[in-house]
Design brief:
The two termini are about 35 Å apart. Helix content is about 35%, strand content about 15%. It folds into four domains: about 60 residues, no CATH class; about 120 residues, no CATH class; about 170 residues, Spore Coat Polysaccharide Biosynthesis Protein SpsA, Chain A, CATH 3.90.550; about 50 residues, no CATH class. It is of the alpha/beta class.
Length: about 525
């Protein structure tokens, strides 16, 4: 893993100190942090003097791993160099953290995790520390401490201790990562504050049995109220159905919303979430929970339950008392322009609109203090925009695809682009990975935010230092390929066909693992290029 560098030390070289005698502190470059050692017991040579420097290790830059658990097989690539750049960017400049890659490394099958540790120790050690920081928000402190202990134990392994451990100390932000965990632990000792939670659900024939899921009830905060706003006048007795599932864990509050009737049908003219959300704020403005979750009756259509699980855990543990807003939608909306949207923005927010960037599907959490920053009168005006009591601000162009005329989805549809602004966020809501106001565990794409406990790997537990490595039942190791820093040039300057395909697939995997996956078009182009190369 390391390379021996021989260098001449001449008195005339201005970059070098005066050469000491052997047995004294070895010489160093004045502008370098190289770690130099001399052979023990070496004799003093004749001038020019030659010393041996165990310097920087030459580690593989990329790894490709293949394994199977039963009939399910996995094929992943990860770049050590890119991980190093991103982990340093996070700790030094608060840029997007390589959290997905860190979780991938920490939950690898032990046999592969050991090979990755021996191949690029800094990446595996820092991955454990990053995951430890993330888990402090959502799990017991003992789990994070175990991850930190495991990272420290890795540096003491015989294969790592010495020059490679020193390399991790000097080339990776190890001390910064340890300090970040220590700082968060100190804050949790004094700043932890369990919060109350309100869950607001508009209901129109959705199956609400998910509320009684035992795994959800176990992580809900102690003071939780669930408000169900019936919008379709269904005959189902929700109290009889839900009360046995929820009590005594949470308080269930049922309400019926009678929106303005559609003269064509005699039925309520609204079917969306806007009237439920705004009616709740108006009705309970003086009696809000510390955090309010605005969700659909079927939230998993747009928000993974894994994300809700983690957020509810954090609320119950009291680690979100500094959070004011978090969008819980999975897909990102494409920004658009519409004069009607601008008009609704002016009426709802009271100022000229900017460019609106946000997530899809109107599911989010808001703190009580953030809701109350806006006066009650403004929420009443917004409610009138969506409950059918004021004329339409927009004219439809083309045929209507609703089942009946008079249903004004346009007002609530445009509010989907600006809920974050209504609750105090800037017009351009950052990507979650780039949003420094969010706790670390939320700085990841929503569909990737899960409890992350694969059946084939334990999250904690030190890898065996030597000898046989235990593998999970049903695990089959296929292989590990390392990609060096340089690809040997083939004759005539033409890459072999197989190597071209491998490089294209490695680029694709690098996008999936090491870069943002929001740019789906670029990913698709890489996939198509790989298929074309495979065909030839």
């Amino acid at each position: 893993m390391s390379t021996l560098f021989l260098w001449k030390r001449l008195k005339t070289n201005p970059l070098l100190e005066e050469p000491p005698l052997f047995g004294e502190r070895p010489p160093r470059f004045l502008d370098s942090k190289s770690i130099c050692r001399e052979f023990p017991g070496a004799l003093r040579p004749a001038k020019p003097q030659v010393a041996v420097c165990l310097s920087q290790a030459t580690y593989p830059s990329e790894f490709r791993l293949d394994w199977c658990v039963g009939s399910q097989c996995f094929d992943h690539s990860i770049s050590c160099a890119q991980f190093q750049l991103r982990i340093r960017g996070y700790y030094e400049h608060d840029r997007r953290p390589p959290l997905r890659e860190a979780m991938f490394l920490v939950t690898l099958p032990p046999v592969y995790q050991r090979e990755m540790l021996l191949g690029c120790p800094g990446m595996v050690v820092l991955a454990h520390l990053l995951v430890a920081e993330s888990r402090l928000y959502t799990h017991e402190v003992t789990e994070a401490l175990e991850l930190v202990s495991r990272a420290q134990a890795m540096l003491q392994l015989p294969e790592i201790a010495g020059v490679h451990a020193e390399g991790v100390q000097n080339a990776w932000p190890l001390q910064t990562a340890l300090g970040r965990v220590d700082g968060l632990l100190a804050w949790l000792d004094t700043g932890r504050m369990p919060l109350s939670a309100d869950i607001v659900l508009p209901h129109c024939r959705e199956d609400l049995s998910w509320l009684g899921n035992s795994s959800l009830l176990q992580v809900l905060p102690a003071r939780t109220r669930i408000f169900v706003y019936e919008k379709c006048g269904a005959g189902e007795d929700l109290a009889a159905v839900l009360s046995p599932l929820l009590e005594p864990h949470v308080q269930l509050i049922l309400a019926r919303l009678d929106d303005v009737a559609d003269p064509a049908t005699g039925l309520s003219a609204r079917r969306d979430e806007c009237t439920a959300y705004l009616s709740h704020v108006v009705t309970h403005f003086g009696d809000l929970g510390d955090l309010t979750f605005f969700l659909h009756g079927d939230p998993s259509d747009h928000t993974p339950f894994g994300l809700l699980n983690l957020v509810f855990r954090a609320v119950a543990l009291g680690t979100l008392n500094q959070l004011d807003f978090a969008h819980l939608g999975a897909p990102r909306l494409v920004a658009t322009y519409n004069p009607c949207q601008d008009d609704i923005y002016r009426r709802a927010v009271g100022r000229e609109p900017g460019r609106l960037y946000t997530y899809c599907c109107s599911q989010f959490l808001v703190s009580k203090r953030r809701i109350m920053q806006r006066p009650l009168e403004q929420y009443l005006q917004m409610l009138q925009l969506v409950d059918g009591s004021v004329p339409d601000l927009c004219q439809r162009i083309g045929p209507s695809y609703e089942k009946y005329a008079g249903q004004r989805l346009s007002h609530c549809f445009f509010l989907e682009f600006m809920w974050h602004v209504v609750f105090g966020e800037p017009d351009e809501l950052p990507l979650r990975a780039d949003d420094t106001s969010l706790p670390l565990f939320l700085r990841l794409k929503a569909e990737l935010l899960r409890a992350f406990h694969p059946v084939f790997a334990a999250l904690v537990g030190s890898p065996p230092p030597r000898g046989k490595v235990e593998t999970p039942e049903g695990f089959r190791k296929v292989g590990v390929q390392t990609k060096p820093n340089r690809i040997p040039k083939p004759t005539k300057g033409v890459l072999p066909a197989g190597l071209k395909v491998w490089i294209a697939l490695t680029r694709l995997a690098s996008v999936l693992i090491s870069e943002t996956t929001d740019d789906r078009m670029a990913t698709c182009n890489l996939a198509q290029d790989a298929e074309k190369k495979r065909a030839f």
